[in-house]
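Researcher: Dear colleague, please comment on this protein.
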Amino acid sequence: MAHTRKNQSSLSRAERRRFVDATLKVKRSGEYDEFVRMHIDYYVSDGEPSLRVAHMTPSFFPWHRRFVLEFERALQRVDAGVTVPYWDWTKDRTPAVSLWGADLMGGNGRPSDGKVMTGPFAYASGHWAIKEGVTDGEYLTRNLGRAQDPIDLPTAQDVAGAMTEAEYDAKPWDSTADRGFRNALEGWTSAGGSERWRNHNRVHRWVGGHMLGGASVNDPVFWLHHAFVDLLWDRWQRRHPDSAPYLPEQPPRLGQAQYQRIVARHELMPPWNVKPNELLGHKNLYRYGD
């Protein structure tokens, strides 16, 4: 039976506690840090001459769908009633919203070093030491809104702009694609300054700290962010029922720039060796509620 992922703003106090407790238990078991390491390992950029499946690539959506689902299954092995909530950052747009309360994600990092001081994932709680990362430091960091160089979260209009894209993705199938829903929502652009970051990418920038780069899974808000990204992919599919749900259909050929660097619809996608085509829907696994 499919379970329901709720908007974090509608969670009851008990639901918040159960989600946090299950996350802490997954961390304590060591499994959480395996998720962090996996994301670091598969965060491959355009400039690296190897297969890209997690970012800057057509498989951005299906790869993260499976990634979040694997984490959700880990939570449910601890507490079968727990699901990953989603954070609608087009509505809950400030550090004052309940998401950042002491009973869920905790608050901002302190100005001096970004160290998160409140909530269950603060280092002082004794339950959340950073063990897998690309920088030194054992404590979780954030810089919500980037006070020294302010940046806003994406708006509903920003998302609507991405939703108008009728194609799923387009050549050259990377961060430079100038059309297609995937890159419009993932948020890579050629603009300068803070406008360089759109939608999904802009949220990572707004949270700051550990949410920047491949080790972003160290901040548990990663899962709530990507659950909403997953929901937006579902909404795009429903808005464009006549569009191909995933592109490219065929892999690039020998001699083409993306040969063996991206995954076509029916190719295996590591590390799970599933095909994007197998992850185009989720209704038999989970649903989204208000």
The chain has one domain: 3-288. The first strand starts at residue 3 and ends at 5.
